[in-house]
Fold this protein.
Amino acid sequence: MAAVDDLQFEEFGNAATSLTANPDATTVNIEDPGETPKHQPGSPRGSGREEDDELLGNDDSDKTELLAGQKKSSPFWTFEYYQTFFDVDTYQVFDRIKGSLLPIPGKNFVRLYIRSNPDLYGPFWICATLVFAIAISGNLSNFLIHLGEKTYHYVPEFRKVSIAATIIYAYAWLVPLALWGFLMWRNSKVMNIVSYSFLEIVCVYGYSLFIYIPTAILWIIPQKAVRWILVMIALGISGSLLTMTFWPAVREDNRRVALATIVTIVLLHMLLSVGCLAYFFDAPEMDHLPTTTATPNQTVAAAKSS
Amino acid sequence: MAEAEESPGDPGTASPRPLFAGLSDISISQDIPVEGEITIPMRSRIREFDSSTLNESVRNTIMRDLKAVGKKFMHVLYPRKSNTLLRDWDLWGPLILCVTLALMLQRDSADSEKDGGPQFAEVFVIVWFGAVTITLNSKLLGGNISFFQSLCVLGYCILPLTVAMLICRLVLLADPGPVNFMVRLFVVIVMFAWSIVASTAFLADSQPPNRRALAVYPVFLFYFVISWMILTFTPQ
């Protein structure tokens, strides 16, 4: 006679019981985060994770902590690893862009908007748009400035696109790399420093460049005063965004080092915008020059004919 | 010994019976067919098809591919929600369009000034690397379109812009001036809108709905850059 007990289904739903049976197994559970393998590839989260959550008193710090641990569990040579960096919805990208345009004092961009979900979509496509915005606006502006001149032949200046791309992408990736390295180094010396991960810094820099897209389009206006006012406004907004993001990170450090870091960040930002303005956009006074060069030719021709 | 509380087909008997005891009494009635054949009816025809394309003339092969490309051109020019472009993707059409566009857009190499229009290689690289980047972007955002299908759609939707380039070239043979520029601007804007509508009709469905705008924006940027290159083309 068959026993009823032999015919009962074995219950697989309980992670606890199966873990007691086999403690090394990796279980995946929908409700709670399961055990993830501890040997993750070097995603530079650092030991600062617990400290910044305590310091800034985020009330869902538990959730972000656990989600952060759960996310990057694929090895870096699979496609899924890179998909975790594009895990944003449309409204989230819009929210981040709005947050970068309106920096509120006291609100940290990383804590408020990025929340341990740094994405590469924003930085990459904002930089691509900025490259083309600068190149196209520069071309248009030069065309409008030199419009009435007889000696001016319009050229599309396509080479400037590749130069703009090199500059913008180098800025958006190398400066965060340098800043991250610097913060890691200070973190090893002064234990209380809040440190951001490399991708979060890239994310902040990428979104802070968004203000330059409308600025580049408005730089078409060939008035020097207007252009410099635009530079000041854009630098004010994105500079304050970067300052408010990185001030908590260096606040605990030596006063002079902290100030020097913030000043360097803002200075590099200013260098980028002024450099782009100077290189891609001709100065508006140039349209006065060709009329003065035209008249000597006429006088020479008149002298020759007489 | 196991005792069944109730056995099937026997509600309310008082005497306990062991489980599955009544199984041997069940017989399958004859009107339920439980036998058949497993054959693939198309198999022999496919084999004939394969060997026949090997022996056909070169003209037939080329005409078949050209007809497929032409059919997809028609689908781009009149975009409806069909998935012909997706199902039978090929990259011949995009290659033909890209080479045509790059040949027409390149600047005269004898007049190689520093800051002119793009070279052939630059246009080619922009089109192909732009398409690859957009495809990677839409796959990373979680779209379920395959790599080459997306390349195929993006390449075929350059067709309206190639037509715009041809028209601009013809218009530029006339006198230069603001009217000339206005005509070219109008043509390029219309064809740009057409490209966007055509590619969105094919690509938008493959994205998750809360990320559709994120996937469509790079397509917009891509065609905008190509339209800009077409609009600013000046013959030397």
